[in-house]
Amino acid sequence: MSDLDRELRQAIKAGVDRSLEGWTFTPAMRQAVLERIAAEKEPAATPDPPRRQSLRPVYWVTAAAAALILAVNLLPDRPGDLSGGSAPEAASTAITDRSGSSELRIMAAPGAGGELNLQTADAQSKSGETAPPEAPGAFTATMAPVEPVKLVLSLDELKTKSGSDDPARGDTGGTAGAPPVMTMSVQPTMVDLTPLQDGKVAVLNSMALQVVDQAGNVLAEEPVAPEPTALADGPAGEPAVVSGNVVSRFRADGQPAGSLELDKAPARVAVAADRVAVADASGVKVYAGDVQVHVLDGLQAEAIALAEDGSLAVLTGMPRPRLQVYSSSLALMMEQDVEADGSALAFLAGGSRVAAGRQVYDRSGAHVWSFPFAPDEIVGTGSGAVLAWNPQTAALVRAETGETLWLAEAAGGTILRATAALDNDLAAVVVGDDGSAGVWVIDAAGTWRHAEPLDAIPVDVAVTGDHLHILLTGGLEVRSLRDESDP
């Protein structure tokens, strides 16, 4: 036996000893393992290096792991228990190598994740190199990218399958819900709907702002004058009603939190806590309460956004947009050109990142990741993800990593609006065509929790808890998303 062969055998024995540390074996079991290893075919000793390629590479790289598996296989009734339960259970995943005459299953060491890279070991052995034995669990995980769930939101198919019991399509039978919310003798015009952080929903009509619970029961109501035109909501779900040149802020319970009277009606409004940012042809102004604290004269904003800490993002200059991010004290933190691929602007991940069109940046201006399409709107969810959409596509994406969880495309219609819950991972998407519409509720796994056709295009929709709220011209209707089979 050559010196090289002797050194290799010593390395194998040392690796086996390390692999057995911390495990409890009976004497008979240990003897059986050692005898099995000794019975392995010994590689022929030869001074000719090229003949090393004929040796089985797995023998040298995985001898320690093989010893562990041989010991496990001695107990067919309890493959994960080596001594009456005193040893930890091996991982459930395995890699199978069929390069030799028998099958070798290499289990991940207890407490370790990932998989052994046998291709690397094979290449090292064939090149004549001998890699030093690695500690158990020290191998690197190699994970393939996970493809997002792809959905087709077909309005025609939804109409055809309405009333179907197909579980893959969710509940399309039109579940019973609360009656429309009617609290005034004169029916008001419905304007907007937005979920609140505490699971409630703000309903804006032409006469008042109502706060309702998940079932649609009115909890609070505040008159609004003059007639409101829009409902803005901040990162914490606090609503602000725009009525002409007046911006009225409300707490999540529907109680007034302050009012701001402007010189003229704003073109764009963003709110966060006690701050309000407004944009018009003259520039961008920021207010704390009713006191103006910052002004950016002459800045023509295509979109504005406020973060929870008071930071301001401004998107300007079409067709070559420019993104600017200011701190709460109006110090310029970031300024750079961005691609003209979508009109969306929003702070993500608690305000640490900002999305402008398809691109997402950190506050230093470094590009982090990209949406799979160019979104026109971006809304946050309660599960650390964001919902992005444009008239043809909607997607749920993890804010930290950019991983797309699901991607939905409209077929035979247009996505009119999409909304996400603030207390779970549900999102609702409305597709409309020729005066009719359909609404789908989708969870983070891409499963339809609810789907139904609507006779008319809704004013707005919202999801909170296990309920879907649909604001129609006649009032608010609520659908329960709870599985009737659940206790």
- Helix residue percentage: 10-25%
Shape: globular
End-to-end Cα distance: 72 Å
Number of strands: 34
Mean pLDDT: 75
Structural class, from helix and strand content?
A: mainly beta
For the biggest sheet, the summary is: 5 strands, mixed
The fraction of residues assigned to DSSP E strands is 35-45%
| Rounded Rg | 31 Å
* Structure annotation, total helices: 6
Give a structural overview.
Residues 160-169 have a biased composition (Basic and acidic residues). The protein has a domain at 3-126. 13% of the residues lie in helices and 38% in strands. The protein has helices at 3-20, 27-38, 57-61, 63-73, 118-126, 155-161; strands at 94-97, 104-107, 149-154, 190-195, 201-205, 208-212, 218-223, 230-233, 239-243, 246-250, 256-261, 268-272, 275-280, 283-288, 291-297, 301-306, 312-316, 322-326, 332-337, 345-348, 353-356, 359-362, 367-370, 377-380, 385-389, 393-398, 404-411, 414-420, 427-433, 436-442, 448-454, 460-464, 467-472, 475-480. It has a five-stranded mixed β-sheet. It has a four-stranded antiparallel β-sheet with strand order 4-5-6-7, with no helix packed on it. It starts with a helix and ends in a 7-residue tail after the last strand.
